[in-house]
Design a protein that fits this description.
Elements (H helix, E strand, L loop, with lengths): L3 H17 L6 H8 L3 H7 L3 H24 L4 H18 L1 H10 L5 H27 L8 H13 L1 H4 L8 H14 L7
């Protein structure tokens, strides 16, 4: 159960981990930003790594839930567009959690990393299911579904490096551009 204080700790930690990086953020930095003692932080979380783990789980659970809605759409093109938009929208609405999760994955202990990777893989498998369905129905050409899925996620996840909320484009608009680029390619007259 996430209490108001735990939620506040997670929000501030995600923000600091995104701004400074997980490794560069100390428990003292976090306590100071929250106006709490280190002992108060440890009352809610046993370690800084436990905070990152909770942030990662929340980010991935939300991302999986957002993407799974697209699985219910029968048309593979529409399902892919909705999946990509949901991924981008979730990123924009939960940027600190999303960035902290992506950047902090390697800092997690093996057992925590395994649990987060399972959720990440589930999200990727949902995307692959959409792509596979499109190939099977002849909507998409024969492609290596795993490789195509990684390409889609790479486009979307790389947004953490350059996309800033409040800029000229919404994340969903970027996702729609990527979707169009994936479907039509760059070649003039390509189908």
């Amino acid at each position: 159960m996430v209490t108001a204080t735990k939620d506040r700790i997670l929000q501030e930690a995600a923000k600091l981990f995104t701004e400074k990086g997980y490794e560069a953020t100390s428990v003292q930095d976090l306590a100071q930003a929250l106006g709490l003692s280190k002992a108060a932080l440890y009352h809610h979380f046993g370690s800084k790594e436990e905070i990152l783990y909770e942030i990662s789980l929340l980010a991935l659970e939300g991302l999986v839930a957002a993407g799974e809605k697209a699985l219910k759409v029968a048309d593979p093109k529409e399902a892919l567009r909705r999946f990509m938009e949901a991924h981008a929208r979730y990123f924009e609405e939960n940027r600190p959690f999303f960035v902290a999760m992506l950047q902090g994955l390697q800092s997690l202990s093996p057992e925590h990393r395994e649990a987060t990777v399972r959720l990440r893989d589930r999200h990727e498998e949902n995307l692959r299911a959409i792509l596979r369905r499109g190939v099977e129905q002849g909507v998409f050409r024969e492609v290596d579904v795993a490789l195509a899925g990684r390409a889609v996620l790479s486009l979307l996840n790389w947004m953490i490096r350059w996309f800033r909320p409040g800029g000229p484009l919404r994340a969903e608009e970027v996702a729609r551009f990527y979707f169009d680029l994936i479907l039509k390619g760059l070649e003039h007259g390509a189908s």
